[in-house]
Amino acid sequence: MSDLRELYQTTILDHYKKPRNFGPLEAATAHAEGYNPLCGDRVTIHVLLDGEIVRDVRFEGSGCAISTASASMMTEAVKGKSRADAERLFQSFHQLIAGPPGALPGPEEVGKLAVFSGVRDYPTRIKCATLVWHALHSALGEAKSVSTE
Amino acid sequence: MSGALGEARSAATAPLDVKRLREDFPILHRTVRGHPLVYLDNAATTQKPRPVIDAVSRYYAEENANIHRGVHLLSELATAAYEGAREKVRAFLNAAETREIVFVRGTTEAINLVASSYGRGHLGAGDEVLVTVMEHHSNIVPWQMLCEEKGARLRVAPIDDRGVLDLDAFEKLLGPRTRLVAVCHVSNALGTLNPVLEITALAHARGIPVLLDGAQAVAHQSVDVRALGCDFYAFSGHKLFGPTGIGVLYGRAELLEAMPPWQGGGDMIASVSFEKTTFNVLPYKFEAGTPHIAGVIGLGAALDYVQTVGLGPIAAWEQALLAHGTALLESVPGIRQIGTAPQKASVLSFVLEGVHAHDVGTILDQEGIAIRTGHHCAQPVMDRFGVPATARASLAFYNTFEELDALASGLRRVIEVFA
Hints:
heterodimer; A: alpha+beta; Sufe protein. Chain: A; 4 strands; globular; B: alpha/beta; Aspartate Aminotransferase, domain 1; Aspartate Aminotransferase, domain 2; 2 domains; four-stranded antiparallel β-sheet; 17 strands
């Protein structure tokens, strides 16, 4: 059970059950869809960019606990950040769950997203956590659809 | 259920000595994450018994040579073993002749062969291929590609809420432009056993040939292609306790004779000059290049093994397991079973309320329980039932009541984590 709690942290389960910033965003200036053909999960990201600032971001779709919580926490983490800072956070997040063990980002870099560190022990689940970030990256770059495959 | 009670029940119901048979499968004795392996992913691939592993190993260690062309002893031995396995497949399917048995990489390649060779020759613009909603992607996509190329149309017969084929709707879809029917014998995602006798009778009454995708059927019941009356039957060795990378296409000789080769190369030719190539006779016309000789030999050993165990007793044991597993899942709160056809192979597909199938799979894996989660390469089935994915426990004859009990307590653990 202790191993499982590393992956399914209380915060993750909370965001899974009560996803934040969930739903459409009428004022959005960019959208992107993320699709994981492995599990059929889809997530759609709506972004409201104000110049270089991510003024608002919301998501829709259904997925597993890891992908839903990752989407929910991503929206909280990037809201108000500049586009470049959001991209940098994606890089740090990727390092956290899939980077070499010697170069893990510190809490000052990833903040609350540190709860996802347990995902690195579950290689088949890494894509669940990164799916929404790829979609965000795509929305920020104006592409329409991304796939984790 | 306690272990002791479980054993008593198993002994009372078992026409098979499952405990002894499990000794034949080395992998069933390993542990996974500190727990004994509970392998419930047999529809994805089955485990291999010692005689299959030994047959492959012995071929490489003692008889390895290319077939059909050497004059030396090893080539003779390898050829005899390879062609001996073809005869075993013929007998296993009760086909009329060994030349009706074509070795391919697997079910997918077998279906692609028919789509490519038979389909291209028989489909034109406006013609139709009829499948069902419950097909695996490998019995959908080759037909889609063919239809795209020919301007033909793929028609799809519906199923009901239990996952049973709507035979009336199926019959209505058989029209003057239907050129081929391609259906699964057993559904991989639902376990449904299709009424293939009725299907072939309905199609043949209109002169339409029938391909059966037998990938999920052959490990659970005996198959007699002549009794079924099908024109093509495809299956994979690895779902029948044999090696990966080897499968079989059975085709009625009359149809295979008239079909053009689909790959060119060695072994499929009688003579070659730059002016003209004469193709070899059946089945070699469809076996271009050096085949998976070790795979064929391993498949032969798997057929010997499964027939020694007996497909009758296997079916009886698996049905007892299925009944136990179905009842157990009903007792777990929040479980919805997907695929409840009255005629089913031992497949338990389900969703758990409030928990995604992937999370179910990850948590069960922590207990050493291997199941499959996802869309099972059958996305139209998932859409039909309005779910993105299911968790699927698929059983083989070496599974036990105790393993199903472990699955049920694992699911209660999942509920605990997500409570």
